[in-house]
Design goal:
Elements lengths: L4 H19 L7 E5 L5 H10 L3 E4 L2 H8 L7 E4 L8 H7 L2 E5 L2 H14 L3 E7 L15 H9 L4 E8 L11 H14 L11 E3 L6 H6 L4 E4 L1 H4 L3
Parallel strand pairs: 1-2, 1-8, 2-3, 3-4, 4-5, 5-6, 6-7
Helix pairs in contact: 4-5
């Protein structure tokens, strides 16, 4: 996009609002995660000044450098694959982890969150299309990990996340978004009482409107906000 960050954010919010109207949802049900991978701190600061409340980073080291330079009351979400050996540093930097897909990651986050006396939110990543190149659990594996996380007192399992295959036509991604919502609805009655699967993180710059119409509560948007990398 050729507009500035504030102008882009206004356009995105308008599109989210329209998608909410089409699907009978309230606009406050959907929050934007600004994907800041490779985005310089001054552009991130402009987004925060314009009203962005959640920043999504892919890498621990990059997030560490940026947190030193980006001020403001924002939440930091880890949206890249987290290696267990980086969990200690990640817990110090991030408020939520959207890509949890392994027992060792759950246990590492619990251990290091306990060390610092912090409670972090997690989402379970689902590989909805069973793509070998992507992380995430098969749908039938999700409940077991939810039960493990439910027993960790420094973790809050808040919902599910997915990344569908890339399509030129956003409508082709819709079945994967609907599938994640349906999976959440099937799993919720089977979850421990302390787990409320309120969050669905799905949808990116090219398909977020379809994701919102299918129930997304978090949309991860980079290019539409900051422009091409």
């Amino acid at each position: 996009m050729t507009f500035g960050v504030a102008e882009n954010l206004e356009k995105i919010r308008g599109r989210i609002e329209q998608a909410c109207r089409r699907s009978g949802r309230g606009v406050r049900e959907v929050r934007l995660v600004a994907v800041t991978k490779t985005v310089p701190p001054d552009r991130i600061a402009a987004a925060v000044e314009a009203g962005v409340e959640i920043l999504g980073e892919n890498y621990v080291q990059e997030a560490g450098r940026k947190r030193e330079r980006v001020a403001g009351p924002v939440a930091w979400h880890m949206i890249g694959h987290l290696q267990s050996n980086k969990a200690r540093a990640a817990v110090a930097l991030f408020d939520a982890f959207e890509t949890v897909d392994h027992e060792r990651t759950v246990l590492a986050l619990q251990r290091h969150a306990l060390e610092v006396g912090k409670v972090v939110d997690i989402l379970i990543q689902v590989n909805a299309a069973a793509e070998p190149s992507k992380s995430g659990l098969a749908p039938e594996q999700v409940l077991k990990l939810i039960h493990l996380a439910a027993g960790c007192d420094h973790l809050r399992c808040r919902g599910l996340m997915t990344m569908p295959p890339f399509f030129e036509q956003p409508e082709k991604a819709r079945p994967f978004f609907a599938g994640l919502r349906e999976l959440r609805d099937r799993l919720q009655p089977l979850c421990p009482g302390n787990v409320k699967l309120t969050e669905l993180s799905m949808g990116m710059s090219g398909d977020f409107e379809a994701a919102v119409e299918e129930g997304a509560t978090l949309v991860r948007i980079g290019t539409a906000l900051f422009g091409p990398r």
